[in-house]
Amino acid sequence: MKVLKFGGTSVATPERVQHIAALLKAKKAAGEEFVVVVSAFGGITNLLEKMCEHAEGQDHQYLNYLEEHKKRHIDAVEALLRPEDHQRVKEELRISQVELEQILQGTFLINELSCRTKDNILSHGERCSAFIISEAFKAQGLEAHYVDTRKIVKTDSEYGQARVHLSETYENIRSAVNGASSLPIITGFIGSNEKGITTTLGRGGSDYTAALFAAALEAEEIEIWTDVNGVLTADPRHVKQAFPVNYLSYQEAMEMSHFGARVIYPPTIIPALGKKIPIRIKNTFEPEFPGTLIGATHEPIDSPHLVKGMASINDIALVTVQGSALFGGSKVLARIFGVTAENDLNVILITQGSSEHSLCFAIPPNKAQIAQEALETEFALEIQAKVMDPIKVERNLSVIAIIGEQMKSRPGISSRLFQALGRNGINVVLTAQGSSERNISVVISQEDENKALNAIHEAYFLSNTFSINLFIVGVGLIGGTLLRQVQDHAKYLKEVRSMEVNVVALANTKRMVFKKAGLDLDRWKEMLDDSSEIMDMDKFVNDMIEMNLPNSIFVDNTADGEIISQYPRILDESISISTPNKVATSSQLNFYRKLKEVADRRGVQFAYETNVGAGLPVITTIADLVNSGDQIIRIEGILSGSLSYIFNNFGEGVSFSEVVGKAQELGYTEPDPRIDLSGKDVARKLLILARESGIPMEPEDIEVENILPQSCLDAPDVPSFMEALKAADDGFESLRADAAKQGKVLRYIATLEGDKAFISLQRLDASNPFYSLSGSDNMIVFTTDRYRERPLVIKGPGAGAEVTAAGVFAEIIRIANQLSPILRIPE
Question: Rounded to two decimals, what is the model's pTM?
Answer without folding.
Answer: 0.73
